[in-house]
Write a structure and sequence with these properties.
- By secondary structure, the chain is mainly α.
- Helix content is about 65%, strand content about 0%.
- The chain has one domain.
- The longest helix is centred in the middle third of the chain and has 35 residues.
Length: about 220
């Protein structure tokens, strides 16, 4: 399949991008690292190339621009979420007498949820070189090994993970602090799982747990 041929739908990814932007926008003002308009700009930067690909002829250049925009936007969202977490943890340790537990609790929920959605997109973009490469079969060695890949009796022929599968991977990694279904196969996949699990662990074990204790 030529590089310029698009084969995977972007609709589910667009919905997840919008969900991430909403989470950033509804964070309490005290924990906003950047202005709210930054979320709008990042959302537009990622969605615009996806939408252009549905109305313009697919070209290698357009697909490269789309992929760069996707990684840049997701990277910015991940950095922003991490900074929000570090700021909340710092506030919890250095300013315990000035804490506002309710905004801090909502912030921890937003950070945890954002972690799930952001890594859903990261896994969707990274695994096997991205959605188009997976469906085309250009890449033979996956970053994540799903059970359905080795179960021809229950899975359809040439089964490939959808973004829902990556959402499930992102959710279980943030909940159990480790993958429960798809196993990371490559070094970069393992490092991404370690990073997501670390963010989730700090959010739940330190920020959220401490905030709940204050609210009691």
């Amino acid at each position: 399949m030529p590089l310029a041929q698009r084969s995977a739908s972007r609709l589910e990814a667009i919905l997840i991008v919008i969900g991430i932007a909403i989470l950033i926008m509804i964070l309490p003002n005290r924990y906003h690292i950047v202005p709210t308009w930054f979320a709008y700009a990042g959302t537009a930067a990622m969605i615009a190339p996806m939408l252009l690909g549905t109305v313009l002829p697919d070209t290698s250049r357009l697909l490269r621009v789309e992929r760069v925009a996707e990684f840049a936007a997701v990277g910015a969202a991940l950095a922003l979420n991490l900074f929000n977490l570090l700021f909340a943890a710092y506030d919890l340790v250095e300013n315990p007498t000035k804490l506002q537990p309710v905004p801090l609790f909502y912030t921890s929920v937003g950070i945890w949820s954002g972690n799930v959605l952001i890594f859903t997109l990261v896994y969707w973009l990274v695994d096997c070189g991205g959605p188009d490469a997976r469906l085309s079969g250009r890449v033979k060695h996956p970053d994540f090994v799903f059970p359905a890949m080795d179960d021809p009796e229950h899975a359809r022929p040439n089964w490939q993970p959808s973004i829902v599968d990556y959402l499930f991977l992102g959710f279980t990694t943030s909940t159990a602090f480790s993958p429960t279904e798809a196993m990371p196969f490559t070094s970069r996949a393992k490092l991404l799982v370690v990073l997501q699990s670390t963010i989730a662990l700090i959010t739940i074990a330190i920020v959220a747990a401490r905030t709940i204790n204050i609210l009691k």
